[in-house]
Automatic annotation (TrEMBL):
GO terms for cellular component: plasma membrane. GO terms for molecular function: ATP binding; ATP hydrolysis activity. The keyword Nucleotide-binding applies. Transmembrane segments: none annotated. It comes from Myxacorys almedinensis A. Keywords: ATP-binding, Cell membrane, Membrane, Nucleotide-binding, Repeat, Translocase, Transport. It is found in: Cell membrane. SMART domains: AAA. Pfam families: ABC_tran. This is ATP-binding cassette domain-containing protein. Residues 1-233, 253-483 form the ABC transporter domain.
């Protein structure tokens, strides 16, 4: 890619950017939220046309008028937000848009071919499952397989590990190394420097739509990369202990023998007992797919219980793991998204009329406070970069009056500074007396923030430990289902009394 420029109304997303990637190379693209990474890759995969500049593949000048052209030229992209048809099966999604193909007419041969491909790259998948039934990690495997099926020679992955567990990320990295060894050029976008150092050959860093530089991994360090990204040095925040809990404090959120069905008609949560007190962060550790999504949805009131009870004192703020289907209206403006949950109340409304000037002023203030990068508050939320979209949800939820905060994968896709900011905000909420439930597949995040850690495995809480003294090794074993703690040891987690003022929900 040479001297690529792409402008959007009010933003220069890419400014005269040069990028060269060799066959067999894994090339990282780094940069803060809104730096222009996704845009550059959208140009390469034919979603947009550059305003200026050129794209060459194996020396040949290309002009992509649509993603079809780019696919034909051997470019495959696994997007930051997947583009799968929810109601179709895995196999249907993979062949979607293929008008002519060797296996088109024979489902048996298609399946056999997909099995071989999947096996070759250790991508375990049930081809007859429908997309909406899959976890995010599984959906990503579908996207990768789809690109491989179309014989991609250049494979672009936009923050692929953001949605994966450490083990899944390891597996993906093995797959990518394997692909590169066979000559595929891989472009890998990530906010995780450790991963970039472990996996990639070279790194190109973007900042504010411009290329800062390209360096070879053996010749650089995490610190240098971080500095190139933000243009200054950053320091890590330390976790602090919570204020002492008063002995008489009642839990703000209680789950009592809660059981919930998953989408595949299996029991996704099995008799969960959990109590969260004001002023503490309880982290739910676990490998993705062990009931996290169902737990989140049940607490948020988006999924019925099959058994048990839920008690909650006060309002719930919810940072959803899937910000696009649960958190944001992409066709609406940033300002509209920021007031979404309270627009029917004052001060946003008065005598049935929306107070637009008020809403605008409020939105401008939040955009500044939460460092949301956008040309204006009237911009469509769908046009924000991935990380900035997450900041909009975060800003809206944290400014609502709440006593319980449910944060599911709150920093997924956020850059280093934004992650630090979100962590600091969560600790501040806790110190102000909020009961915080953090569901995260990032073990580092769980360890850094939690006052108590519960381990979720196959829908059960198999262990509970103190955050400050948690043993990483034991935590890892529990997450893998290796050491289950007996129920008796967990029994003291259930409070013997229930708050009088709480909202109580039972089997719906
Ligand atoms: N379709 C669009 N319309 C208008 N502006 C856009 C559009 N797509 C991207 N932008 C803007 O271009 C800039 C770069 O966005 P981009 O998505 O490329 O960032 P990014 O580096 O991928 O960030 P992140 O790490 O948050 O995903 C942002 O300011 C974004 O708001
Ligand atoms: Mg992006």
């Amino acid at each position: 890619m040479g001297r690529i420029t792409k402008r959007f109304p009010g933003v220069i997303a890419n400014q005269a950017i040069a990028l060269d990637v060799k066959a067999g190379e894994i090339h990282a693209l780094l940069g803060e939220n809104g730096a222009g990474k996704t845009t550059l890759m959208n140009l390469l995969c034919g979603l947009y046309e550059p305003d200026e500049g050129e794209i060459r593949i194996f020396g040949q000048l290309m002009r992509f008028r649509s993603p079809k052209d780019a696919i034909a030229a051997g470019i495959g992209m696994v997007h930051q937000h997947f583009r799968l048809v929810e109601s179709f099966t895995v196999a249907e999604n993979i062949i979607l848009g293929q008008t002519k193909g060797l296996w088109r007419d024979s489902p048996q041969r298609l399946h056999a071919h997909l099995q071989t491909l999947a096996h070759q790259y250790s991508l375990t998948l049930d081809f007859t499952a429908r997309i909406w039934q899959l976890s995010v990690g599984e959906q990503q495997r579908v996207e990768i397989l789809k690109a491989l099926y179309r014989r991609a020679r250049v494979l672009i992955l936009d923050e692929p590990t953001a949605v994966l567990t450490p083990q899944e990320a390891q597996d993906l990295m093995a797959t990518l190394r394997h692909l590169a060894a066979q000559g595929t050029a891989i472009i890998f976008i990530s906010h995780k420097l450790k991963e970039v150092m472990a996996l990639c050959d070279r790194v190109t860093v973007l900042r504010d739509g411009q290329r800062v530089g390209t360096v070879a991994v053996p010749q650089t360090t995490e610190q240098e990369l971080a500095q190139m990204m933000v243009g200054r040095t950053i320091k890590r925040q330390r976790r602090t202990d919570p204020p002492e809990r008063l002995p008489q404090t009642e839990p703000a959120l209680i789950l009592k023998q809660l059981s919930v069905m998953g989408d595949r008609q299996h029991l996704a949560l099995r008799a969960i007992d959990l109590a969260i007190y004001p002023g503490e962060i309880v982290g739910i550790a676990g490998v993705d797919g062990n009931g996290q999504r169902e737990l989140e949805e049940a607490i948020a009131g988006l999924r019925p219980f099959s058994q048990g009870e839920l008690w909650r004192t006060g309002n719930l703020a919810h940072i959803p793991s899937d910000r696009y289907s649960m958190g944001l209206l992409t066709e609406f403006s940033i300002a509209e998204n920021l007031v979404l949950r309270d627009v029917q109340h004052p001060p946003f409304q008065w005598r049935g009329l929306l107070r637009l000037a008020w809403i605008r002023k409020y939105a401008v203030d939040l955009v500044q406070r939460y460092l949301i990068r956008t040309p204006s508050v009237q911009t469509r939320a769908g046009n924000l970069s991935g990380g900035n979209a997450q900041k909009v949800v975060f800003a809206r939820e944290l400014t609502r009056h709440h006593q319980v905060l449910l944060a599911a994968q709150p920093t997924r896709g956020l850059d280093i500074s934004a992650t630090e900011f979100v962590h600091a905000q969560m600790v501040a909420r806790r110190d102000a007396g909020t009961a915080v439930l953090l569901i995260s597949t990032e073990l580092e995040e769980i360890l850094c923030l939690s006052d108590r850690i519960a381990v979720l495995y196959e829908g059960r809480i198999v262990g509970m430990m103190d955050g400050a003294s948690a043993d990483v090794h034991q935590l890892g074993l529990m997450m893998a289902g290796k050491t289950a703690v007996g129920h008796a040891q967990l029994a003291d987690q259930t409070p013997s009394f229930y708050p009088a003022e709480a909202d109580r929900r039972t089997r719906d």
